[in-house]
Design a protein that fits this description.
Length: 249
């Protein structure tokens, strides 16, 4: 192109036109699309404050709940769950507050997210925070059959083996092995009483285990009937012939 005195190469002119269009576009966008109140008090839209304030609230807050529900209020506030909001479990309930008879908050009675959201094991939770492995912790049962959601003290762990193995305990009690503790033959971690299938007790696995008391040469008291381990019962395990919880000779 030739503008008399100045000569511009064509590609520069094309670029200049593109630039001019881009700048015009920007000015247009700034006019059309940037909201009115933007920048009045800083780099944000001032009207946003009113807009947010006008949205409907969904949560009422615990102070409001306990005005009508003083009993759960008191129980929760002295429990392990004292820091929890009621609505973390019962869901957003501000409509219930306005009209308690029409809108009922949810009651999470079934086993599920309501409890596991906080208690399912996650490595990132603080150490010491009570956590469980959902698959292993009393599977299939609703959490609230054992834990009061408003006062979740862990229930007493069943003390004796017989609390769960009643049949075996009462059979053994009237047998020749009545005086033997379960722990004589089973090593049991305390965890077993809480998560039975996660922590399995040991079981005797060899003939020589019974031989500790019953072998002819065994060093225990003379009252115990003896057998020759090499010939008696041959190559079978002792408990293939003798029920260990009620042995008969
Ligand atoms: C203005 C009083 C009032 C307030 C505030 C209130 N409730 Fe209620 N709530 C009631 C009444 C009344 C009932 C119905 C009782 C009934 O049906 O026997 C009820 C029932 C419930 C129930 C049982 C629902 C059912 O299906 O049985 C739950 C759970 C509950 N409220 C939780 C809350 C929570 C959480 C809050 C706080 C966000 C709250 N309430 C605030 C009055 C109130
Ligand atoms: C950890 C979860 C959790 C929290 C926190 C919680 N609740 Fe509950 N709430 C439950 C569950 C689960 C039930 C059902 C209990 C049942 O059926 O045995 C229930 C039952 C209720 C009921 C109806 C039955 C009853 O006991 O009368 C009311 C009302 C109630 N909760 C109010 C509240 C209020 C108020 C708060 C806060 C102070 C609160 N809850 C905090 C889980 C929770
Ligand atoms: C919003 C998180 C949250 C939810 C949801 C929640 N919990 Fe908790 N839970 C806690 C906190 C926090 C503690 C107290 C931990 C502490 O004191 O170190 C606690 C403590 C407990 C404890 C006591 C553990 C102990 O070491 O003594 C049990 C049991 C428990 N919760 C069961 C439940 C059950 C059942 C539910 C469902 C109905 C539930 N939790 C729902 C946060 C939650
Ligand atoms: C069959 C009864 C039973 C059921 C069902 C049950 N628990 Fe437990 N839970 C227990 C017992 C017993 C303990 C006490 C264990 C102990 O010695 O710390 C316990 C302990 C806990 C603890 C404390 C763990 C810790 O390390 O301090 C939490 C949290 C817990 N349970 C949450 C739950 C949740 C969530 C559910 C539902 C998914 C649930 N429980 C279902 C019986 C039950
Ligand atoms: C909370 C209930 C409970 C308590 C308490 C309990 N157990 Fe168990 N035990 C179980 C359950 C459930 C199983 C698994 C049964 C199955 O999987 O068929 C089991 C399994 C066993 C097994 C078989 C393990 C295997 O791999 O076959 C032995 C042995 C045993 N328990 C011994 C004991 C002894 C000893 C005690 C007392 C120190 C005890 N248990 C206390 C519930 C309990
Ligand atoms: C003299 C040793 C001895 C004593 C004492 C003993 N057990 Fe056993 N128990 C065994 C042996 C051996 C087996 C393995 C049986 C098999 O594998 O067939 C066994 C198996 C078991 C099993 C799994 C198989 C079944 O029968 O269900 C359970 C559960 C069990 N014992 C619980 C107990 C409890 C609870 C006590 C105490 C009340 C107890 N045992 C006392 C030796 C003993
Ligand atoms: C093939 C089945 C079989 C096996 C395996 C077996 N027994 Fe016996 N056991 C018997 C029979 C049958 C009797 C009763 C007749 C007898 O005294 O030979 C008996 C008797 C006994 C008696 C009573 C002896 C007396 O004098 O009253 C003891 C103790 C005994 N067995 C221990 C064991 C021990 C320990 C083992 C494992 C090392 C074992 N048995 C393996 C079948 C068996
Ligand atoms: C800690 C020592 C001890 C161990 C281990 C032991 N027993 Fe015994 N056993 C005894 C005592 C004590 C008696 C009862 C003696 C009596 O009634 O006078 C007995 C009795 C018996 C009898 C009954 C004998 C009769 O007179 O009818 C048989 C069979 C037997 N045990 C088999 C076993 C088997 C099988 C095992 C391995 C699973 C085993 N015992 C492990 C101490 C033990």
């Amino acid at each position: 192109m030739n503008l008399g005195f100045w000569k511009f190469p064509d590609q520069v002119v094309r670029l200049a036109i593109l630039f001019a269009l881009a700048i015009a576009g920007l000015i247009w966008v700034r006019h059309e699309f940037v909201p009115e109140s933007f920048g009045e008090r800083g780099h944000y839209r001032l009207d946003a404050i009113d807009a947010v304030a006008a949205t409907e609230t969904h949560y009422a807050g615990r102070q409001v709940c306990v005005e009508c529900h003083d009993e759960p209020g008191e129980v929760v506030s002295s429990s392990y769950h004292r820091t929890l909001s009621c609505e973390v479990c019962h869901g957003p309930a501000s409509r219930h507050v306005e009209d308690p008879d029409t809108f009922k908050p949810e009651i999470p009675r079934r086993r599920g997210r309501a409890c596991l959201y906080c208690h399912e094991y996650l490595p990132s939770r603080p150490t010491g925070f009570p956590q469980i492995l959902e698959r292993q912790h009393n599977p299939m049962e609703a959490c609230i059959t054992c834990h009061d959601p408003h006062d979740p003290t862990p229930p007493e762990t069943p003390g004796s083996c017989g609390a769960c193995h009643g049949q075996i305990a009462s059979t053994k009690a009237v047998s020749h092995h009545g005086t033997l503790e379960c722990s004589t033959c089973h090593t049991t971690a305390p965890e077993h009483s809480v998560n039975p299938r996660a922590a399995r007790p040991s079981k005797p696995s060899q003939r020589s285990f019974c031989g500790r008391c019953h072998a002819t040469g065994a060093s225990s008291s003379a009252e115990i009937p003896r057998v020759d381990l090499d010939s008696h019962g041959d190559r079978y395990l002792c408990w293939q012939c003798h029920y260990p919880h009620h042995p008969e000779g």
